[in-house]
Amino acid sequence: MFNNLVWMFVLLCSSVADEYSIRDANIFPSSPEIERGSSLELSCVLRKSDTPQRNANHIIWKLNDTLISPEEYKIVNETVSNITIHNFTYSTAYVECLMKYLDKELPLVHTVVKSGFRPDMPENISCIYFYDVNLTCTWSAGRETSFTTNYTLYRKLMSSPYTVRSCQNTTESCSFFYPYNDYSNDFCFQVEAKNVLGASLTECVSIPLQKIEKFASPEILSVKKIPGIKQLLMVTWKMPEKIIPLKHIICQVQYRNLYSNFTEFVNVSLNSKKDKIVSCNLTGLWDSTDYSVAIRCMNNESAFWSGWSGEKKESTEEKAPSQKVDLWRVIESSRSSRNRSVHLMWKPLKSFQPSGRILGYKIQYFPEKKTACKRTVNSTDEKITLFLNEEAYIICVTAYNSAGKSPEAILRIPSTDEKSSQMIETMVTSTLNEEVVVQWKTSEPETSTYVVEWYEELETDPFVRSWQYVSNSTEWKNNKKNFKPFLCYNISVYPLYGNNVAAPSYAQIYAQEKKPSEGPVADTDIPGKNEVTIKWNEISKAKRNGFITNYTIFYKPEDGKELNETVNSDILQYRLKSLQANTQYTVWIMASNKAGGTIGEPKTFKTLKLDKDDVFFIAIPVGISVLCLIGLWITCVLKKHAFKKVCWPDIPNPEESLAVEWPLASSMNNSFLKRVSSQTKSVDFEDINVLEYCFPEEGQEESLLINYENHVSECTDINTKGITNRDEKILHNEEDEAANCFSPSMPYVIADQFTRSQMHSALIPVKEVQPIEMVANDLFGSQQNPIKNEENDIEEVLKLEDFSEKALFNPYLKNSVKAREFLVSESLPEHSMDECKSQSSVLPPFQPKVSGQSYITLDMFRLAKAQ
């Protein structure tokens, strides 16, 4: 079933294709070639048309795939359609005939159309006649035709219109070869050019063969000199065999001086019928000079010379050289004056005729003051090195050949201790147009001869130096081509007087400059806070390419504006100032000459936060502080006992005091203190406060103050009596009276160090807390006038007017703390114990205070031992 469907589909497609296909069509002309600018006519012919839809009405035309307007179509019949294209200008075009049916374009046939021009008439006919060889004519064809053009050359007799010979070619020349190149002066020549579009024919031009004859090149047999005859060469040559007979011939002899590259010509006339071997003498030549000789010949009526014969060389007769050599020297400095290297160089003077082939040179030298010590050296080179001592030397150089020797060239080498005079005052170099110019000014006008020496600055071989003698002038010029571009040359000018050479004047020059091949590499010192020193090295001489005129330092902070500084070429370091602190910079350097500048590799650096001055000013106070601390520490170490005594004074233990007994009954006596001390040792310090706040209540303050006043007056009398001197002697007979001055409820511990004034000062009411330093002053204060102090204290107490203010009593120390505690013993009467307890209930129990707050500990109440 599937196969049947496939066959049905194939048959249907084939029937449709047959319906819409055209079996064949033709186009006429098939490959048209027309004259450019003319009209093109083409016809498309259908071979078969079985249906009315296949006819010429459905034909369309295209030119280079572009539809041609239907207005140009012409339907001849049902099978022929014509088209006309006016003013066809394409050199080559593609024209196609198609059938348009059901909106489809079916190609039928196509052709390629070419256009061109008719050939122009050939012009400028010329011919060359080689006797019994060939006759060749050439012409110019004119413009390009775009078609193949065939040329025909006709040779006719002037007396007859018939053609004698003809030749064809597609190029613009044609030749008649032997034996078809008959000799006759009655011939004329005519050229026809022809292509598919037409032909053009020139007129017949008469050309006599003797006027177009060209010989083959003659052959030189010999060029030789005649012994004993100087300045002469004899040339012999052979004429070619095939020459038109009975005609006069002219030969031209060319001889060229190889030394000066100068060329001269000599014409020689001869009869070709008789002269087959010809000779000629060349006179007036230079002695001992090489010459090159060549010959060509021609018919005296012809317009063409033969080709030049091959060259032959020969030298004239020698004679002794007539001119001395051009001599110069280079004296190389040496550590040892006894072994100097003197490099001699010379060359023949090219401004004069040479005397012959130089076979060698003879060098003679001797000390100036020892002419008998002459030495001779022969050399075939134009240079030699002599090793001389410190004396002055005379050097002579002569050139010689087989005929003799030249005059001597003499040069004096000064001794090592001679100092040549400086004759040249100024020297200037410049480049003008295509020349290097050196000008100088001398202080000795009579000096007329100078030597200009020049060489590359980096050249170390002394023998490659160039030099030139200058006479009667203070200016020297040389072509730039003799100098290498972008290289530095050293130029020296030496004045000559006789055989002596004066001190030279030096200069440097670049014949041509360009910007340096590389830039300087920047380097930096250790940066500061606001400045840094930039350093760089000179560019190598081989890469400067000119004279460095200046350096430009470019520097740029990070994310900042680029800045620059320009310095002279002799400066190789520069300090950049006014930089930003703690900032990263990039710096690079450009070296410049007259032709431009080149930038080197960049360098980065970062400025410091602080410079040396800042560190210095910071270090001074720090150092002083450290020294002070060290000094204080040393002082503390050396005076630690004194400082301890001032800052932590020893409080006398009342228990061990022999100066005063406790003001109690005999039953209490010293057992009170012993019991207190023993109890404090057995009882925990945190549970029992040995020192408690014993301040009276508000109701009791007034009565307490009244009693205090009464006691003060009595105690004052007693105390003044008891103190007699500073020996701190204790009067025991006044103990009872002193005890009566104090209430049992207010016991005091009196040390032998205390004066009576200090005891009374402890009774003064304290209004505010005093620093511990003040307490120390009270404890260890001066005792120069205890009576007076005592009286002052009493007066201060008596002057108190307002006793309603709370007064805190300190029975032991003056101005120590606001809260003072009294020593309480268990053996005290009950009323005093109750009183203390009642006071303790008002104020909180004693707690030791933190650092910075004054307080009294138990150790401070140890009784002082007897001194």
TrEMBL record:
Pfam families, per the entry: fn3, IL6Ra-bind, Lep_receptor_Ig
Segments traversing the membrane: 615-638
Main location, first listed in the record: membrane
Membrane topology of this protein: Single-pass type I membrane protein
Record's subcellular location: Cell membrane
Keyword Membrane: yes
Signal peptide: 1-17
Gene3D superfamilies: Immunoglobulins (2.60.40.10)
Swiss-Prot/TrEMBL keywords: Cell membrane, Glycoprotein, Immunoglobulin domain, Membrane, Receptor, Repeat, Signal, Transmembrane, Transmembrane helix
Stored InterPro entries: FN3_dom (IPR003961), FN3_sf (IPR036116), Ig-like_dom_sf (IPR036179), Ig-like_fold (IPR013783), IgC2-like_lig-bd (IPR010457), Type1_Cytokine_Rcpt_Type2 (IPR052672), TypeI_recpt_CBD (IPR015321)
GO terms for cellular component: plasma membrane
Ranges for domain Fibronectin type-III: 217-319, 323-419, 516-610
Source taxon at top rank: Eukaryota
SMART domains: FN3 (SM00060)
Family indicated by similarity: Belongs to the type I cytokine receptor family. Type 2 subfamily.
Name by which UniProt lists this protein: Interleukin 31 receptor A
